[in-house]
Amino acid sequence: MSSVTSDVKTETAEILTRLGVHSSLYSSGNLNAYTPVTGEKIATIPAHTADHAAQIIDAAHIAFKEWRMVPAPRRGELIRLFGEELRAAKDDLGRLVSIEAGKITSEGLGEVQEMIDICDFAVGLSRQLYGLTIATERAGHRMMETWHPLGVVGVISAFNFPVAVWAWNTALALVCGNSVVWKPSEKSLLTALACDALLARALKRFGDAPKNLSSVLLGDRVMGEALVDNAKVALVSATGSTRMGREVGPRLAKRFARSILELGGNNAGIVCPSADQDMALRAIAFGAMGTAGQRCTTMRRLFVHESIYDQFVPRLQKAYQSVSVGNPLTSSALVGPLIDKQSFDAMQESLKKAEAQGGKITGGNRVDLGLENAYYAKPALVEMPKQTSPVTEETFAPILYVMKYSDFDDVLEKHNAVGAGLSSSIFTLNLQEAERFLSAEGSDCGIANVNIGTSGAEIGGAFGGEKETGGGRESGSDAWKGYMRRATNTINYSKALPLAQGVSFDIE
Ligand code: NAD
Question: N or C: which end of the chain has fewer CB within 10 A?
Answer without folding.
Answer: C
